[in-house]
Design brief:
single chain, alpha+beta, SH3 type barrels, 6 helices, 7 strands, about 25% strand
Length: about 160
C-alpha cells in the first residue's frame, strides 16, 4: 500500500510532544549520502515538528566541536544503541545540535520519493529517560537556534503526559 508522503508527515505532527524514529533519504544532503534515521518531536499543532538527525559519525563531530571550542555541543549528542531501538545496528547519536523546526510540508519536500519514509518506532518506544535526554540536549545546545529552544521549553509541560 502506497501512502502519500504528505499523509505520513501529517501523522508525525499529531499529538503534543510525540516522539518518532523515522528513516528516510534527505534531499537536503548530498546526492551520494545514504538514508538516515531521524527523531521527530511533534509540537501538537498538526503543522510543525522538530527534526534531529541520527549519525554514527560521533568522533568526527567531536573533533569539529572541540576545534570550535564548543564542549556544550559535544554534550548535546545523545547516544543510542540497539538496546534503545533494535533497528540500530551500530552505535550512534542523536545530534541535537542539528535540530530543525519544520512544517510537515517542508519535511515532505525533503523526503526522496524514490526511497520510502519508514516509521521505525513510535512514542511509546521512547523511554522517559531518552525523551528527557533529547529535550535537555536540544535546550542546552550552544548551536540550536534560540527560537527552537523557546518552543521546546513551552513543550516541556507536554512531556509528562506523553508517556
Amino acid at each position: 500500500m502506497n501512502v502519500p508522503i504528505e499523509a505520513l508527515t501529517r501523522s508525525l505532527c499529531n499529538g503534543k510532544a510525540e516522539f518518532n524514529l523515522i528513516h528516510f533519504k534527505d534531499l537536503k544532503l548530498p546526492p551520494n549520502a545514504p538514508a538516515h534515521f531521524h527523531v521527530t518531536i511533534s509540537l501538537g499543532d498538526d503543522q510543525y515538528l522538530l527534526l534531529c538527525i541520527i549519525t554514527s559519525q560521533m568522533q568526527k563531530l567531536e573533533r569539529i566541536y572541540r576545534f570550535r571550542n564548543q564542549q556544550g555541543a559535544i554534550d548535546s549528542m545523545v547516544p543510542l544503541s540497539s538496546d534503545d531501538f533494535p533497528t540500530l545496528s551500530i552505535g550512534c547519536v542523536v545530534n541535537c545540535n542539528d535540530t530543525e523546526l519544520l512544517t510537515r510540508d517542508e519535511l515532505a519536500r525533503r523526503i526522496d520519493p524514490s526511497i520510502s519514509l519508514d516509521f521505525i518506532s513510535f512514542n511509546p518506544s521512547f523511554s522517559d529517560v531518552l525523551k528527557n535526554s533529547i529535550i535537555n540536549a536540544i535546550d542546552n545546545s550552544p548551536i540550536v537556534k534560540p527560537n527552537i529552544q523557546k518552543i521546546l521549553r513551552q513543550l516541556r509541560s507536554g512531556l509528562a503526559t506523553c508517556s
